[in-house]
């Protein structure tokens, strides 16, 4: 079942349950996926679906940090709820240990030796963890392992 089909089904369920918060979030996700489908002129493949979800999740996390800094608790609570809903559609996230193991393996594969090889390692790691790990976690893990 494609992401759009799942979102449509969940949207109907949220309407019936009168869950306004979930309904609005699912509608935003469905609109983002539909827009991407229109831009590409074809159905989305699973990687593109994860990319759309990752983008929406990142937007909400960035906004959350800004609203926390601005001391807006009502908006913070709403965004935290939206983040939980978006995360429910994401693939299972890798643990920090799993990310560290993938990075260490990749460093050996590309023969990286110092922090000057950072770009080469990131370029090789990100496709392996796409949608399964936060970019900030991967970034810090690569820096940590290359500086040893």
Automatic annotation (TrEMBL):
InterPro entries: Asn/Gln_tRNA_amidoTrase-B-like, GatB_Yqey_C_2, YqeY/Aim41, YqeY/Aim41_N. Gene3D superfamilies: 1.10.10.410, Uncharacterised protein YqeY/AIM41 PF09424, N-terminal domain. Coiled coil: none annotated. It comes from the Bacteria. PANTHER family: ALTERED INHERITANCE OF MITOCHONDRIA PROTEIN 41, MITOCHONDRIAL. This is GatB/YqeY domain-containing protein. It comes from Ligilactobacillus pabuli.
């Amino acid at each position: 079942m494609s992401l759009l089909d799942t979102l449509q089904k969940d949207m109907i369920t949220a309407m019936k349950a009168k869950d306004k918060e979930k309904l609005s979030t699912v509608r935003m996700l469905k609109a983002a996926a539909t827009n991407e489908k229109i831009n590409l002129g074809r159905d989305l493949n699973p990687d593109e679906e994860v990319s759309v979800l990752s983008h929406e999740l990142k937007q909400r996390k960035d906004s959350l940090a800004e609203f926390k800094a601005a001391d807006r608790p009502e908006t913070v609570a709403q965004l935290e709820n939206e983040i939980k809903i978006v995360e429910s559609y994401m693939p299972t996230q890798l643990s920090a240990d799993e990310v560290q193991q993938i990075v260490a393996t990749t460093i050996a594969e590309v023969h990286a030796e110092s922090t000057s090889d950072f770009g080469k390692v990131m370029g090789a790691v990100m496709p392996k963890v796409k949608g399964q790990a936060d970019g900030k976690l991967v970034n810090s893990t690569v820096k940590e392992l290359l500086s040893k």
